[in-house]
Design goal:
The structure holds two protein chains of two kinds. By secondary structure, chain A is α+β, with helices and mostly antiparallel strands. Chain A has four helices and eight strands. Classes of the chains: A alpha+beta, B alpha+beta.
Protein backbone atom coordinates (compact mmCIF):
# COMPACT_ATOMS: atom_id res chain seq x y z
CA UNK A 1 0.00 0.00 0.00
CA UNK A 2 1.46 3.35 -1.07
CA UNK A 3 0.31 6.85 -0.14
CA UNK A 4 0.79 10.09 -2.04
CA UNK A 5 -0.37 13.63 -1.25
CA UNK A 6 -1.16 15.52 -4.46
CA UNK A 7 -2.73 18.77 -5.60
CA UNK A 8 -5.19 18.57 -8.50
CA UNK A 9 -5.96 21.73 -10.49
CA UNK A 10 -9.04 21.46 -12.71
CA UNK A 11 -9.74 23.66 -15.71
CA UNK A 12 -13.31 25.12 -15.68
CA UNK A 13 -14.68 22.57 -18.22
CA UNK A 14 -13.73 19.64 -15.99
CA UNK A 15 -15.52 20.76 -12.87
CA UNK A 16 -18.51 18.54 -13.73
CA UNK A 17 -16.36 15.41 -14.18
CA UNK A 18 -16.77 13.08 -11.14
CA UNK A 19 -13.03 12.43 -10.91
CA UNK A 20 -12.99 11.45 -7.23
CA UNK A 21 -15.65 8.84 -7.81
CA UNK A 22 -13.73 7.50 -10.84
CA UNK A 23 -10.49 7.28 -8.88
CA UNK A 24 -12.26 5.18 -6.27
CA UNK A 25 -14.35 2.95 -8.56
CA UNK A 26 -12.13 2.54 -11.61
CA UNK A 27 -8.68 2.69 -10.07
CA UNK A 28 -9.35 1.10 -6.68
CA UNK A 29 -7.89 4.05 -4.78
CA UNK A 30 -8.71 5.43 -1.35
CA UNK A 31 -9.11 9.19 -1.71
CA UNK A 32 -8.73 11.28 1.43
CA UNK A 33 -9.70 14.88 0.61
CA UNK A 34 -7.62 17.30 2.68
CA UNK A 35 -8.72 20.55 1.06
CA UNK A 36 -10.90 21.59 -1.82
CA UNK A 37 -11.84 24.85 -3.50
CA UNK A 38 -14.23 24.46 -6.40
CA UNK A 39 -15.87 27.48 -7.95
CA UNK A 40 -18.25 27.04 -10.91
CA UNK A 41 -16.87 28.42 -14.20
CA UNK A 42 -13.49 28.91 -12.54
CA UNK A 43 -10.56 26.71 -11.67
CA UNK A 44 -11.11 24.03 -9.05
CA UNK A 45 -8.36 22.75 -6.77
CA UNK A 46 -8.22 19.69 -4.54
CA UNK A 47 -5.58 18.50 -2.12
CA UNK A 48 -5.94 14.77 -1.62
CA UNK A 49 -4.03 11.82 -0.28
CA UNK A 50 -4.29 8.81 -2.59
CA UNK A 51 -3.77 5.36 -1.08
CA UNK A 52 -3.40 2.18 -3.11
CA UNK A 53 -0.82 0.12 -4.93
CA UNK A 54 1.93 2.14 -6.66
CA UNK A 55 0.52 0.94 -10.01
CA UNK A 56 -3.04 2.05 -9.27
CA UNK A 57 -1.80 5.45 -8.06
CA UNK A 58 0.21 5.88 -11.28
CA UNK A 59 -2.79 4.81 -13.37
CA UNK A 60 -5.10 7.15 -11.47
CA UNK A 61 -2.72 10.09 -11.94
CA UNK A 62 -2.37 9.26 -15.66
CA UNK A 63 -6.20 9.26 -15.97
CA UNK A 64 -6.37 12.71 -14.34
CA UNK A 65 -3.64 14.12 -16.57
CA UNK A 66 -5.37 12.71 -19.67
CA UNK A 67 -8.50 14.53 -18.58
CA UNK A 68 -6.53 17.79 -18.47
CA UNK A 69 -6.05 17.96 -14.70
CA UNK A 70 -2.72 19.43 -13.59
CA UNK A 71 -1.21 17.20 -10.90
CA UNK A 72 1.42 18.63 -8.55
CA UNK A 73 3.07 17.37 -5.42
CA UNK A 74 1.99 19.02 -2.18
CA UNK A 75 5.56 20.13 -1.47
CA UNK A 76 5.19 22.89 -4.04
CA UNK A 77 2.07 24.27 -2.37
CA UNK A 78 3.18 25.32 1.10
CA UNK A 79 6.53 26.91 1.78
CA UNK A 80 8.72 27.79 4.70
CA UNK A 81 11.01 30.73 4.03
CA UNK A 82 13.92 30.27 6.38
CA UNK A 83 15.25 33.76 5.61
CA UNK A 84 12.03 35.30 7.01
CA UNK A 85 11.76 32.86 9.93
CA UNK A 86 13.09 34.03 13.31
CA UNK A 87 12.82 30.51 14.73
CA UNK A 88 10.40 31.56 17.46
CA UNK A 89 8.74 28.12 17.05
CA UNK A 90 5.15 29.42 17.46
CA UNK A 91 4.18 27.42 14.36
CA UNK A 92 5.34 24.11 15.82
CA UNK A 93 2.76 24.14 18.61
CA UNK A 94 -0.18 24.45 16.20
CA UNK A 95 1.02 22.00 13.53
CA UNK A 96 -1.07 18.82 13.88
CA UNK A 97 1.19 16.52 11.86
CA UNK A 98 4.74 17.40 12.99
CA UNK A 99 5.50 18.89 9.59
CA UNK A 100 6.95 21.77 11.60
CA UNK A 101 9.27 20.74 14.41
CA UNK A 102 12.18 22.17 16.37
CA UNK A 103 15.68 20.82 15.81
CA UNK A 104 16.81 19.92 19.34
CA UNK A 105 20.42 20.85 18.59
CA UNK A 106 20.00 24.24 16.94
CA UNK A 107 16.51 25.14 18.27
CA UNK A 108 15.62 26.12 14.71
CA UNK A 109 12.35 25.35 12.94
CA UNK A 110 12.45 22.40 10.55
CA UNK A 111 9.76 22.02 7.86
CA UNK A 112 9.13 18.51 6.52
CA UNK A 113 6.78 19.18 3.62
CA UNK A 114 5.85 15.52 3.14
CA UNK A 115 4.11 15.56 6.55
CA UNK A 116 2.08 18.68 5.73
CA UNK A 117 -1.69 18.32 5.19
CA UNK A 118 -2.15 21.99 4.25
CA UNK A 119 -4.38 22.83 7.20
CA UNK A 120 -2.67 26.26 7.15
CA UNK A 121 -2.68 26.61 10.94
CA UNK A 122 0.94 27.75 10.66
CA UNK A 123 -0.02 30.74 8.49
CA UNK A 124 -1.91 32.42 11.33
CA UNK A 125 0.68 31.37 13.91
CA UNK A 126 3.59 32.97 12.04
CA UNK A 127 3.90 36.72 12.60
CA UNK A 128 6.77 37.13 10.13
CA UNK A 129 5.36 35.82 6.85
CA UNK A 130 7.70 32.85 6.90
CA UNK A 131 4.95 30.38 5.92
CA UNK A 132 3.17 30.79 2.62
CA UNK A 133 0.41 28.79 0.98
CA UNK A 134 0.02 28.80 -2.77
CA UNK A 135 -3.32 26.95 -2.61
CA UNK B 1 36.42 39.58 43.26
CA UNK B 2 36.67 42.04 40.34
CA UNK B 3 35.33 45.48 39.48
CA UNK B 4 33.82 46.79 36.23
CA UNK B 5 37.00 48.84 35.77
CA UNK B 6 39.18 45.72 36.03
CA UNK B 7 36.95 43.91 33.55
CA UNK B 8 37.13 46.84 31.12
CA UNK B 9 40.92 46.91 31.46
CA UNK B 10 40.98 43.22 30.51
CA UNK B 11 38.66 43.90 27.55
CA UNK B 12 41.02 46.64 26.31
CA UNK B 13 44.01 44.33 26.79
CA UNK B 14 42.28 41.52 24.88
CA UNK B 15 42.48 39.25 27.95
CA UNK B 16 38.83 39.12 28.98
CA UNK B 17 37.13 35.75 29.41
CA UNK B 18 33.49 35.73 28.30
CA UNK B 19 30.96 32.90 28.36
CA UNK B 20 27.34 32.87 27.27
CA UNK B 21 24.66 32.09 29.85
CA UNK B 22 24.22 28.68 28.20
CA UNK B 23 27.95 27.94 28.36
CA UNK B 24 28.27 28.79 32.06
CA UNK B 25 25.69 26.14 32.96
CA UNK B 26 28.18 23.50 31.81
CA UNK B 27 31.23 25.32 33.20
CA UNK B 28 29.68 25.51 36.69
CA UNK B 29 28.59 21.86 36.55
CA UNK B 30 32.11 20.83 35.62
CA UNK B 31 34.21 23.15 37.80
CA UNK B 32 31.91 24.48 40.49
CA UNK B 33 30.82 28.06 41.19
CA UNK B 34 34.09 29.19 42.82
CA UNK B 35 36.34 28.10 39.96
CA UNK B 36 33.89 29.29 37.29
CA UNK B 37 33.66 32.72 38.94
CA UNK B 38 37.47 32.95 39.01
CA UNK B 39 37.70 31.94 35.37
CA UNK B 40 34.89 33.96 33.68
CA UNK B 41 34.78 37.77 33.71
CA UNK B 42 31.51 38.37 31.85
CA UNK B 43 28.41 36.30 31.09
CA UNK B 44 26.35 37.26 28.05
CA UNK B 45 22.61 36.72 27.62
CA UNK B 46 20.23 37.20 24.72
CA UNK B 47 16.61 37.26 23.68
CA UNK B 48 14.65 38.03 20.53
CA UNK B 49 10.89 38.32 20.62
CA UNK B 50 7.94 40.66 20.13
CA UNK B 51 7.96 43.66 22.48
CA UNK B 52 4.87 45.76 21.92
CA UNK B 53 6.26 48.46 24.18
CA UNK B 54 8.68 49.56 21.46
CA UNK B 55 8.76 52.80 19.56
CA UNK B 56 10.92 55.47 18.06
CA UNK B 57 11.14 59.21 18.34
CA UNK B 58 12.81 61.26 15.67
CA UNK B 59 13.58 64.83 14.72
CA UNK B 60 13.05 66.05 11.16
CA UNK B 61 15.19 68.68 9.47
CA UNK B 62 13.24 71.94 9.32
CA UNK B 63 11.58 72.97 6.10
CA UNK B 64 11.61 76.42 4.52
CA UNK B 65 9.43 78.08 5.67
CA UNK B 66 9.45 76.33 9.01
CA UNK B 67 6.66 74.07 10.26
CA UNK B 68 5.44 73.17 13.75
CA UNK B 69 4.42 69.48 13.90
CA UNK B 70 3.55 69.81 17.61
CA UNK B 71 -0.21 70.15 17.93
CA UNK B 72 -0.69 69.17 14.30
CA UNK B 73 -1.41 65.87 12.63
CA UNK B 74 1.39 63.63 11.37
CA UNK B 75 1.14 60.47 9.29
CA UNK B 76 4.06 58.19 8.45
CA UNK B 77 3.19 55.84 5.58
CA UNK B 78 -0.44 56.49 6.50
CA UNK B 79 0.10 55.54 10.13
CA UNK B 80 -0.68 58.27 12.68
CA UNK B 81 2.40 59.36 14.65
CA UNK B 82 2.41 61.33 17.88
CA UNK B 83 2.96 65.06 17.43
CA UNK B 84 2.54 66.49 20.90
CA UNK B 85 6.08 67.68 21.39
CA UNK B 86 8.15 70.48 19.88
CA UNK B 87 8.14 71.68 16.28
CA UNK B 88 10.17 68.88 14.74
CA UNK B 89 9.98 65.98 17.22
CA UNK B 90 7.71 63.06 16.31
CA UNK B 91 7.09 59.74 18.01
CA UNK B 92 5.86 56.49 16.51
CA UNK B 93 4.99 53.36 18.45
CA UNK B 94 5.29 49.91 16.91
CA UNK B 95 1.63 48.99 17.49
CA UNK B 96 0.25 52.08 15.68
CA UNK B 97 -2.00 51.19 12.73
CA UNK B 98 -3.13 53.00 9.59
CA UNK B 99 -6.30 55.04 10.17
CA UNK B 100 -8.14 53.19 7.41
CA UNK B 101 -6.77 49.76 8.33
CA UNK B 102 -9.35 46.99 8.84
CA UNK B 103 -7.98 45.98 12.26
CA UNK B 104 -10.15 43.08 13.45
CA UNK B 105 -13.19 43.97 11.32
CA UNK B 106 -12.67 40.74 9.40
CA UNK B 107 -11.68 38.58 12.34
CA UNK B 108 -8.96 37.55 12.86
CA UNK B 109 -7.27 40.59 11.29
CA UNK B 110 -3.93 40.21 9.55
CA UNK B 111 -2.31 43.51 10.63
CA UNK B 112 -0.04 43.56 7.63
CA UNK B 113 1.29 47.07 8.28
CA UNK B 114 1.87 49.28 11.28
CA UNK B 115 4.45 51.25 13.21
CA UNK B 116 6.72 48.24 13.52
CA UNK B 117 6.91 47.82 9.76
CA UNK B 118 7.84 51.49 9.38
CA UNK B 119 10.60 51.14 11.98
CA UNK B 120 11.94 48.06 10.18
CA UNK B 121 11.83 49.88 6.83
CA UNK B 122 13.83 52.80 8.21
CA UNK B 123 16.49 50.51 9.72
CA UNK B 124 16.74 48.66 6.39
CA UNK B 125 17.62 51.99 4.75
CA UNK B 126 14.27 52.48 3.00
CA UNK B 127 12.34 55.72 2.84
CA UNK B 128 8.93 56.40 4.39
CA UNK B 129 6.33 59.04 3.52
CA UNK B 130 5.87 61.82 6.08
CA UNK B 131 2.70 63.93 5.88
CA UNK B 132 2.20 66.87 8.24
CA UNK B 133 -0.91 69.05 8.52
CA UNK B 134 -0.83 71.75 11.13
CA UNK B 135 -2.19 75.21 11.94
CA UNK B 136 0.69 77.64 11.38
CA UNK B 137 2.09 80.30 13.69
CA UNK B 138 4.07 83.51 13.26
CA UNK B 139 7.30 81.63 13.88
CA UNK B 140 6.27 78.42 12.09
CA UNK B 141 4.04 79.63 9.22
CA UNK B 142 3.98 76.49 7.09
CA UNK B 143 0.78 74.43 7.36
CA UNK B 144 1.45 71.39 5.19
CA UNK B 145 4.52 69.30 4.42
CA UNK B 146 4.97 65.99 2.59
CA UNK B 147 8.29 64.25 2.06
CA UNK B 148 9.90 60.87 1.51
CA UNK B 149 12.45 60.47 4.29
CA UNK B 150 15.00 57.84 5.25
CA UNK B 151 17.07 57.53 8.41
CA UNK B 152 19.87 59.63 6.89
CA UNK B 153 17.41 62.50 6.31
CA UNK B 154 16.57 62.74 10.02
CA UNK B 155 18.57 64.75 12.53
CA UNK B 156 18.02 62.12 15.21
CA UNK B 157 16.22 58.79 15.47
CA UNK B 158 16.04 56.95 18.77
CA UNK B 159 14.55 53.57 19.70
CA UNK B 160 12.90 53.55 23.10
CA UNK B 161 11.25 50.68 24.95
CA UNK B 162 9.25 51.89 27.97
CA UNK B 163 9.20 48.20 28.87
CA UNK B 164 11.43 45.36 27.82
CA UNK B 165 13.31 42.45 29.38
CA UNK B 166 10.39 41.02 31.37
CA UNK B 167 12.01 38.91 34.03
CA UNK B 168 9.56 36.05 33.81
CA UNK B 169 6.50 35.60 31.69
CA UNK B 170 3.39 33.47 31.54
CA UNK B 171 2.90 30.30 29.59
CA UNK B 172 -0.34 30.96 27.72
CA UNK B 173 -3.06 28.37 27.21
CA UNK B 174 -6.71 28.41 26.15
CA UNK B 175 -9.35 26.51 28.12
CA UNK B 176 -12.25 27.68 25.96
CA UNK B 177 -13.71 25.76 23.01
CA UNK B 178 -12.69 28.18 20.26
CA UNK B 179 -9.30 29.32 18.93
CA UNK B 180 -8.24 32.69 20.33
CA UNK B 181 -5.75 35.18 18.92
CA UNK B 182 -3.51 36.88 21.49
CA UNK B 183 -0.16 38.63 21.88
CA UNK B 184 1.06 35.21 22.98
CA UNK B 185 0.12 33.90 19.54
CA UNK B 186 -2.64 31.66 18.27
CA UNK B 187 -4.03 29.52 21.07
CA UNK B 188 -6.18 26.60 20.01
CA UNK B 189 -9.22 25.73 22.12
CA UNK B 190 -9.46 22.92 24.67
CA UNK B 191 -5.77 23.21 25.59
CA UNK B 192 -4.74 22.74 21.96
CA UNK B 193 -1.33 24.30 22.50
CA UNK B 194 0.76 26.28 25.01
CA UNK B 195 2.92 29.27 24.05
CA UNK B 196 5.87 30.65 25.98
CA UNK B 197 7.83 33.88 25.49
CA UNK B 198 11.28 33.40 26.96
CA UNK B 199 14.76 32.21 26.10
CA UNK B 200 15.03 30.41 29.45
CA UNK B 201 18.63 29.92 30.54
CA UNK B 202 19.66 32.69 28.11
CA UNK B 203 17.05 35.17 29.34
CA UNK B 204 18.75 38.38 30.56
CA UNK B 205 17.10 39.03 33.93
CA UNK B 206 16.74 35.35 34.84
CA UNK B 207 20.54 35.29 35.04
CA UNK B 208 20.52 38.24 37.47
CA UNK B 209 17.23 37.64 39.28
CA UNK B 210 17.89 40.12 42.11
CA UNK B 211 19.20 42.82 39.73
CA UNK B 212 22.58 42.94 41.54
CA UNK B 213 24.60 43.91 38.43
CA UNK B 214 22.10 45.76 36.26
CA UNK B 215 20.79 49.26 36.91
CA UNK B 216 20.18 52.61 35.29
CA UNK B 217 23.05 53.31 32.90
CA UNK B 218 23.94 49.68 32.17
CA UNK B 219 25.13 49.30 28.57
CA UNK B 220 23.34 46.56 26.62
CA UNK B 221 23.22 45.05 23.14
CA UNK B 222 20.11 46.63 21.62
CA UNK B 223 19.07 45.60 18.10
CA UNK B 224 22.72 45.46 17.05
CA UNK B 225 23.63 48.83 18.58
CA UNK B 226 24.93 49.76 22.00
CA UNK B 227 21.91 50.76 24.04
CA UNK B 228 21.36 51.62 27.68
CA UNK B 229 19.02 50.89 30.55
CA UNK B 230 17.30 54.27 30.85
CA UNK B 231 14.94 53.62 33.75
CA UNK B 232 12.97 50.82 35.38
CA UNK B 233 10.50 49.54 32.82
CA UNK B 234 6.79 50.14 33.16
CA UNK B 235 5.02 47.54 35.32
CA UNK B 236 8.31 46.84 37.13
CA UNK B 237 7.59 44.92 40.34
CA UNK B 238 10.18 45.96 42.94
CA UNK B 239 9.63 43.18 45.45
CA UNK B 240 8.22 40.09 43.76
CA UNK B 241 7.41 36.83 45.47
CA UNK B 242 10.41 34.61 44.94
CA UNK B 243 10.93 30.89 44.61
CA UNK B 244 13.81 28.96 46.10
CA UNK B 245 17.03 30.14 44.43
CA UNK B 246 15.84 33.73 44.06
CA UNK B 247 13.90 33.45 40.81
CA UNK B 248 10.63 35.38 40.76
CA UNK B 249 7.36 33.43 40.89
CA UNK B 250 5.51 35.64 38.41
CA UNK B 251 6.20 38.44 35.88
CA UNK B 252 8.25 40.98 37.85
CA UNK B 253 11.25 43.16 36.92
CA UNK B 254 11.32 45.11 33.66
CA UNK B 255 13.75 47.56 32.05
CA UNK B 256 13.28 50.65 29.90
CA UNK B 257 15.83 50.55 27.08
CA UNK B 258 17.10 53.28 24.79
CA UNK B 259 19.43 53.26 21.78
CA UNK B 260 20.35 55.00 18.54
CA UNK B 261 18.11 53.75 15.72
CA UNK B 262 20.70 54.89 13.17
CA UNK B 263 23.19 52.34 14.55
CA UNK B 264 20.74 49.44 14.58
CA UNK B 265 20.96 46.39 12.34
CA UNK B 266 17.88 44.95 10.59
CA UNK B 267 19.15 41.47 11.49
CA UNK B 268 18.21 42.20 15.11
CA UNK B 269 14.73 43.67 14.75
CA UNK B 270 11.71 42.46 12.85
CA UNK B 271 8.20 43.74 12.36
CA UNK B 272 5.60 41.24 13.48
CA UNK B 273 2.03 40.95 12.21
CA UNK B 274 0.35 39.05 15.01
CA UNK B 275 -2.88 37.66 13.55
CA UNK B 276 -6.01 38.80 15.39
CA UNK B 277 -3.95 40.97 17.74
CA UNK B 278 -1.96 43.70 16.01
CA UNK B 279 1.44 44.89 14.88
CA UNK B 280 4.45 44.46 17.12
CA UNK B 281 8.22 44.61 16.91
CA UNK B 282 10.53 41.70 17.62
CA UNK B 283 13.52 43.18 19.36
CA UNK B 284 16.93 41.59 19.81
CA UNK B 285 18.53 42.46 23.10
CA UNK B 286 21.39 41.11 25.19
CA UNK B 287 22.54 41.99 28.68
CA UNK B 288 26.20 41.52 29.67
CA UNK B 289 26.56 40.42 33.29
CA UNK B 290 29.87 41.27 35.01
CA UNK B 291 31.03 38.49 37.34
CA UNK B 292 31.83 40.74 40.28
CA UNK B 293 31.39 38.02 42.91
CA UNK B 294 30.60 34.33 43.27
CA UNK B 295 26.89 34.95 43.81
CA UNK B 296 26.66 36.41 40.30
CA UNK B 297 28.12 33.20 38.86
CA UNK B 298 25.88 30.98 40.99
CA UNK B 299 22.85 32.81 39.62
CA UNK B 300 24.14 32.81 36.02
CA UNK B 301 24.36 29.02 36.26
CA UNK B 302 20.57 28.85 36.17
CA UNK B 303 19.50 26.10 33.77
CA UNK B 304 16.33 25.34 31.80
CA UNK B 305 15.42 22.76 34.44
CA UNK B 306 15.61 25.40 37.22
CA UNK B 307 13.35 28.02 35.63
CA UNK B 308 9.60 27.57 36.05
CA UNK B 309 6.76 29.67 34.67
CA UNK B 310 3.14 30.04 35.70
CA UNK B 311 0.53 28.63 33.31
CA UNK B 312 -2.18 31.20 32.57
CA UNK B 313 -5.51 30.76 30.76
CA UNK B 314 -5.90 33.49 28.14
CA UNK B 315 -9.52 32.71 27.22
CA UNK B 316 -11.02 34.01 30.45
CA UNK B 317 -8.64 34.45 33.40
CA UNK B 318 -6.15 36.79 31.69
CA UNK B 319 -8.68 39.09 29.96
CA UNK B 320 -10.75 39.36 33.15
CA UNK B 321 -7.73 39.87 35.39
CA UNK B 322 -8.43 36.76 37.40
CA UNK B 323 -5.71 34.67 38.93
CA UNK B 324 -5.99 30.91 39.01
CA UNK B 325 -3.32 28.43 39.94
CA UNK B 326 -2.92 26.21 36.90
CA UNK B 327 0.49 25.04 37.99
CA UNK B 328 4.00 25.77 36.84
CA UNK B 329 6.16 24.31 34.11
CA UNK B 330 9.92 24.40 33.54
CA UNK B 331 11.74 25.73 30.49
CA UNK B 332 13.17 22.26 29.91
CA UNK B 333 9.63 20.84 29.72
CA UNK B 334 8.51 23.64 27.40
CA UNK B 335 11.44 23.00 25.09
CA UNK B 336 10.72 19.27 24.97
CA UNK B 337 7.81 20.03 22.62
CA UNK B 338 4.93 19.24 24.96
CA UNK B 339 3.82 19.71 28.56
CA UNK B 340 1.17 18.02 30.63
CA UNK B 341 -1.83 19.98 31.92
CA UNK B 342 -4.76 18.26 33.65
CA UNK B 343 -3.42 14.92 32.43
CA UNK B 344 -3.43 16.08 28.80
CA UNK B 345 -0.32 16.33 26.62
CA UNK B 346 -0.23 19.87 25.20
CA UNK B 347 2.15 20.82 22.35
CA UNK B 348 4.31 23.89 23.01
CA UNK B 349 5.50 26.73 20.82
CA UNK B 350 7.58 29.83 21.48
CA UNK B 351 7.17 33.53 20.86
CA UNK B 352 10.79 34.40 21.70
CA UNK B 353 13.51 32.77 19.61
CA UNK B 354 15.99 30.69 21.55
CA UNK B 355 18.10 30.29 18.40
CA UNK B 356 18.27 34.08 17.87
CA UNK B 357 18.83 34.66 21.60
CA UNK B 358 21.82 32.33 21.40
CA UNK B 359 23.08 34.22 18.35
CA UNK B 360 22.79 37.55 20.23
CA UNK B 361 24.55 36.23 23.33
CA UNK B 362 27.29 34.91 21.04
CA UNK B 363 27.58 38.18 19.12
CA UNK B 364 27.77 40.18 22.35
CA UNK B 365 30.48 37.79 23.58
CA UNK B 366 32.40 38.29 20.32
CA UNK B 367 32.17 42.08 20.56
CA UNK B 368 33.38 42.11 24.17
CA UNK B 369 36.29 39.80 23.32
CA UNK B 370 37.14 42.00 20.32
CA UNK B 371 37.25 45.10 22.53
CA UNK B 372 34.25 46.65 20.75
CA UNK B 373 31.92 46.63 23.76
CA UNK B 374 32.91 47.90 27.21
CA UNK B 375 30.76 47.36 30.29
CA UNK B 376 29.14 50.34 32.02
CA UNK B 377 28.85 50.75 35.77
CA UNK B 378 25.20 51.36 36.69
CA UNK B 379 24.64 54.81 38.18
CA UNK B 380 21.64 53.71 40.27
CA UNK B 381 19.98 50.50 41.34
CA UNK B 382 16.52 49.60 40.09
CA UNK B 383 13.59 49.89 42.53
CA UNK B 384 13.65 47.07 45.06
CA UNK B 385 17.19 46.02 44.12
CA UNK B 386 20.55 46.39 45.83
CA UNK B 387 23.61 46.45 43.60
CA UNK B 388 26.47 44.07 44.35
CA UNK B 389 29.12 45.56 46.64
CA UNK B 390 31.60 45.95 43.79
CA UNK B 391 29.07 48.10 41.89
CA UNK B 392 27.47 50.07 44.72
Amino acid sequence: MAKKKLVFSFPPLLIHEPVTSNLIRKYDLEVNLLRARIQPREQGRIVAELSGTPESISAGVAYLENQGVQVDTLIQEIRHYSDRCINCTACTGVCPTDALTVDPESDEVVFEASHCIMCEACLAACSYGAMESLF
Amino acid sequence: MRSIEEINAKIKAGKVVVATAEEVVGIVKERGVKEAARMVDVVTTGTFGPMCSSGIYFNIKQTTPKIKCGGGRVLVDGVPAYAGWAAADIMLGCTALPEDGPRNAVYPGLFKYGGAHIIEKLVKGEKVKLEVKTYGTDCYPRKEYTAELGLDDLNDAVMFNPRNSYQLYNVAVNFSKRTIYTYMGVLKGRLGNANFGTTGALSPLLNDPELRTVGIGTRVFFCGAQGYVAWPGTQHVPEPARLEGGLPASPSATLALIGNLKEMDPAYLRAASIVGYGASLAVGYGLPIPVVDEQVMAQCAVSDEDITYPIVDYSENYPLGRSADLGRVSMAQLMSGSIEIDGKSVPTGGMASRARGRQIAGELKRRIEAGQFLLARPVAALPGATLAEALA
